[in-house]
Amino acid sequence: MKKIALVYNPVSGGATFKKKLDYIIESFQKRNMLIMPYRTQKSGNASLISFMETAKPDGLIAAGGDGTLHEAVNFMMKQDYKIPLGIIGSGTSNDFASYLGINEDLDDYFDSIAEGKTRFVDLGRIGEDYFVNVASAGAFTGVAHEVAPKLKNSLGKMAYYLKGLGEIPKFHAMPLKIEANGKIYEEEALLFVVANSATVGSMKNVAVEAKIDDGKLDFIAVKKLSVRNFMKLLKCLISGKPIVGKKGVIHIQSDKFFISSTEKARGDLDGELGPYLPLKIETIPRALEIYVC
What we know:
- It contains 10 helices and 15 strands.
- By secondary structure, it is of the alpha+beta class.
- It folds into 2 domains: 2-122, Probable inorganic polyphosphate/atp-NAD kinase, domain 1 (Rossmann fold, 3-Layer(aba) Sandwich); 130-285, Tumour Suppressor Smad4 (Sandwich).
């Protein structure tokens, strides 16, 4: 019998995931798999190490938002767990799961897990920290950390958009120096993302050329623009239209980036607070095995 550890965030997505636990346990039992739940805690999850050592699972599923996935990926990489990772997106934003299309039909996904259907994906690394989907800084970066939980739970992704629109009058460009592919780029930018997939901030096709297994990451920055032109780009993003190639958009593909600024700016990794600039970012090719449909 295949054993699967289920690491779930009890408060993600308005604390609705807990209502699905019985359905998930039943679904795995039907497929002759044993599911072993681990409930994450605000105070820290140091006990997850002993849980995994005792359980010795054949795979692990992270259930929650992008932050829960980020924590699970870092745990697995730092503990050197060479087992497949599944994703049940149950948060406000589930970018990586959405990009892979693995939560559109959970029963189909559970069948794939039972069959052991996987693929290897790249990760990004900054120092000792990993990110599975995106590293960013600049305008909008702090929005996810400033939206009140009640507003996020009631409005979902729209809460981020509303908060972001309210921040537009405060936007200012910061000087950026980007080193990649043996070249140096110096720009005034409102924001930037270094993306592994095309879906960022619940918006599709932000990095339309990004591939999660090409050994590269995609740097995309929005230059200093008028509010009118910035709103045009934002309209494209929200409607799922690509922005690469649009006026004021910088796009660089590389396996390594060094990004610095003369201004103090804090980065964000998969929706979690990250280190301050400068950022030395590298791609770790095919670092993680993921359950896919």
